[in-house]
């Protein structure tokens, strides 16, 4: 059974009885350890969770019988005793779908129970109406379910990432003007009723940050800020491994740090316009990953226009959040992100010959589909982590 979460930001797509959960809290504690560390021993779980050894042994037996975890053939060394066989999650226990509703496209990602991305696809679209998006997404879901032999009873839920901000506590969003029909409607209800799945919704940048923390370089950091560079500029925050959502679900709106009359917003639509002015044709910002040339005329102009913006946002994030890392991702090409990082200055006071510890600036290693991959992590984060 699926859990029912009554919050406005994360709630199940259909009603269940009170108290019903996919896993009990104590089981989730064990699953979290195995998920983040991928392969561990029973003694390590006892040490990490502080759950009594006998209880851990009993729960592991139950989780194994239900196909949630598997024992591997690998012996893992134990500093305090005999080596133990590895314990890992069963990738086929369950799957999640992630749907990105972009400004002119949708993308779909599928994850197995270990958090591994097993499928991604993007489809450019001229009609982003609710009916057309659901129709196209339904076709993608049906096709991948048949191709990968994913039975409906093994689908844990669907996450959705969409451009916009939550406008109130009711979970409705003020979406980008190119997604007019999706504005101020109950997206969770619409999507969950269509697919008959528990559904969770975040804005696109928060979703991408969530995905970076599971499937990207963000997994190496407990605390990081994610800069989402796409058709617009935004961000997400991961604190102690969890996605920070804030009061309404709008935490990480980095673009709002930049008064538009004073700072250029560092987005790829601006880059596209500058490139076009310089005679470089770019059909879609999503093609830049495969076709980008750092020597194109106009690239340096874009960097000059937006570098102060990156400096300001990075400095504010460093000062306010004391993050381990600032990750530049979204749909920005890696080579361009590396150029941004090389020029970014994070200000901090210099005292007694030293600055305070500064965050690392790194490039996302999720090359494509950051929003749908991130959306696919939402059911995992809610139900299991």
From TrEMBL:
Superkingdom of the organism of origin: Bacteria
SUPFAM superfamilies: Actin-like ATPase domain, Winged helix' DNA-binding domain
GO molecular function, one term: N-acylmannosamine kinase activity
Residues of the signal peptide: none
GO biological process: N-acetylneuraminate catabolic process
Pfam annotation, one family: ROK
Protein name as it appears in the record: MarR family transcriptional regulator
Organism expressing this protein natively: Pseudoalteromonas fuliginea
């Amino acid at each position: 059974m699926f859990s029912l979460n009554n919050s406005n930001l994360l709630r199940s797509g259909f009603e269940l009885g009170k108290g019903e959960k996919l896993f009990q809290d104590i089981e989730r504690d064990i699953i979290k350890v195995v998920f983040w560390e991928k392969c561990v021993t029973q003694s390590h779980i006892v040490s990490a969770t502080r759950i009594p050894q006998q209880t851990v042994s009993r729960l592991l037996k139950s989780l194994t019988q239900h196909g949630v975890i598997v024992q591997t053939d690998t012996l893992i060394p134990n500093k305090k005793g005999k080596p133990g066989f590895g314990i890992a999650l069963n990738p086929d226990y369950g799957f999640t779908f992630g749907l990105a509703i972009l400004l002119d496209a949708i993308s779909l990602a599928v994850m197995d129970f270990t958090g591994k991305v097993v499928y991604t696809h993007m489809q450019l679209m001229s009609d982003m109406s609710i009916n057309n998006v659901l129709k196209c997404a339904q076709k993608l879901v049906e096709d991948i379910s048949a191709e990968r032999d994913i039975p409906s009873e093994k689908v844990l839920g669907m996450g959705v990432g969409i451009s916009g901000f939550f406008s109130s506590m009711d979970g409705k969003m003020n979406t980008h003007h190119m997604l007019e029909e999706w504005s101020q409607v109950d997206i969770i209800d619409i999507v969950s009723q269509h697919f008959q799945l528990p559904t969770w919704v975040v804005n696109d940048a928060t979703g991408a940050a969530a995905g970076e923390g599971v499937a990207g370089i963000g997994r190496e950091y407990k605390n990081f800020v994610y800069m989402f560079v796409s058709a617009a500029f935004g961000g997400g925050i991961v604190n102690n491994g969890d996605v920070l959502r804030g009061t309404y679900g709008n935490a990480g709106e980095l673009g709002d740090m930049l008064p538009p009359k004073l700072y250029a917003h560092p987005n790829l639509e601006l880059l596209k316009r500058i490139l076009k002015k310089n005679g470089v044709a770019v059909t879609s910002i999503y093609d830049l990953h495969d076709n980008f040339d750092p020597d194109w005329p106009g690239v340096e102009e874009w960097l000059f226009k937006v570098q102060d913006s990156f400096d300001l946002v990075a400095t504010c994030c460093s000062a306010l959040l004391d993050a381990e890392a600032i990750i530049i991702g979204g749909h920005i090409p890696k080579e361009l992100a590396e150029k941004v990082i090389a020029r970014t200055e994070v200000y901090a006071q210099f005292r007694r010959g030293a600055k305070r510890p500064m965050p690392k600036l790194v490039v996302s290693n999720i090359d494509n589909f950051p929003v749908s991959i991130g959306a696919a992590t939402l059911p995992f984060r809610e139900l299991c982590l």
